Amino acid sequence: MKDKLSGAMKKFSGAIVQPIMFMAVTGIILSAGVILRMDNMPALLKGMGDFLYNLMMNGGINQLSVIFCVGITVALAKRKKTDAAVVSLSMFLFFIYANNAWLTSHNMLAKAGAFGLSGTGQAMVLGVQVVDMGVLLGILLGCICGYVFNKYCDITFPDAVSVYGGTRFVYLVLTFVTIALAIAMCYLWPVVNNAINACGQFIESSGNLGLFIYGFLNRILIPTGMHHLIYMPFLFTPVGGSVKMGDTIVSGAQMIYMAQLGNIQHISALDPSVKYLMFGFSKVFGCIGIVLAFIKTAKPKNKAKIKGMLLPLLFVAVLAGITEPLEFSFMFISPLLWVVHSVLDGLFQVIVFVLGCRAPFSGGLIAFLPILLTVPMQLSKWYILFGVGLVGIAVWYFSFVFLINKFDMKTPGREDTGETDTQQSTDSKSNALGDVNDIIEGLGGAENINQVTNCFTRLRVDVKDLSKLDEAKINKFKNNGIVKKGNNVQIIIGMKVQSVREDVCQILHMD
Q1: DSSP characters for 41-55?
Q2: Which of 115, 348, 395, 454 is the most exposed place for a label (fewest CB within 10 A)?
Q3: Dmax of the chain from CA atoms?
Q4: What does the pLDDT look like over 125-134, one tens digit per residue?
Q5: Under 8 Å between Cβ of 241 and 251
Q6: CA–CA separation, 472 vs 273, rounded Å?
Q7: Which stretch of DSSP H or E encloses residue 450?
Q8: What b/e sequence results for 151-172 when a residue is b if at least 16 CB atoms lie within 10 Å of its CB, and e otherwise?
Q9: For residue 225, what pLDDT band results from cuts at 50, 70 and 90?
Q10: Is the pLDDT of residue 5 over 70?
């Protein structure tokens, strides 16, 4: 049981890596858009910046759910990957339309308020209003599609109905599974939503402990999309506090702050509810510590490549407060690091508030600049934020370095030790590393290979009979180690592993 669970987790980790690897490119383009759209830029450049920013946000970051659904399904599929992609995309569309149809027909659609559907437990996905499961929807559907696809993609029927066999049968089965899931979530997800709202009431009444829980949940729930249900009630409803402003009662931390900002010259202190606007601390200081830790722990020959991948993601996190491209690069590979990251997020929000900082800091540095200019320093005490921030960078850095080394976590850049910059691919069957046929023969031949995948630096192969493994033959192809776990063989190749996997799959006629 333990080996099966471990094997399943390894397959999931390898699958989740595939869509994540494209997010570095998204981060680069997003960073360029953030810079170009700054207010002091010429109108032409600002227009280009708005275009790039909106493109990457709406087409990339905001569509992670469908990207993960297709990416995970294709990565898990052992063969016929083109069909797997079509099936998974179809099932994602079936889910959102089935979910919306059920919500509509049973009068369960939430009403949009002044801030849209935020905090209602529902959201717009590809223009369709559905239950707000966030990225968890794509991950869940991707895993289900991958499992069912592998189980039934080779099924055959008698000639009269043979057209309904194979991947068409997978499509049929998954259609009913997806519809059932879409209907079930109409009832299950509101329960989760209510639990989140009850948690909000507890947080507000628990002082600094509540603030820690607020920060922790607001971070750790990001993969599920439920973090919106944490912060939105505090920002825009009486859960976050209420203040009488003249003849009007203003509720919610964000609304209270905006009301006070309009009368900033005549107030002596910002309302304590501003503490719920400080969840940008980890977006800047935490992310800096994390990236420095990843670079520090990367294998020497990989440091340059890791810097090229991570620094653009860090830039967009610090500047714009958009952390998903960076955080998704490790949260599923090393869940422990994600938990520690979330704990530190909550802890430092409490520390900053207890020390007297009242600066609303929920995004990146660009969003913080107007606060520096409009809120008097004696009210915001922003210098506390940056003083504690330096300490925060060190804490994140040393915590991550210790855990990565202690548990030998395979964070980006950790798996390869000997790749050189001069290694270049030459053709589909051989390159400077050697002939990929040596890998196939060393694994017992094509008939002994079930599935071939890869992570950042390892070629992962499921074989039928491990006794047929010939390590001497495999080692004719330059590598940095062979790891065996059950019937799974991992060959540590390096950052060029993607092209090696493609060459192997081409020879084996695998999709």
Answers
A1: S-HHHHHHHHHHHHH
A2: 115
A3: 83
A4: 998 999 988 7
A5: yes
A6: 65
A7: strand 449-454
A8: ebbeeeeeeeeeeebbbbbbbe
A9: low
A10: no
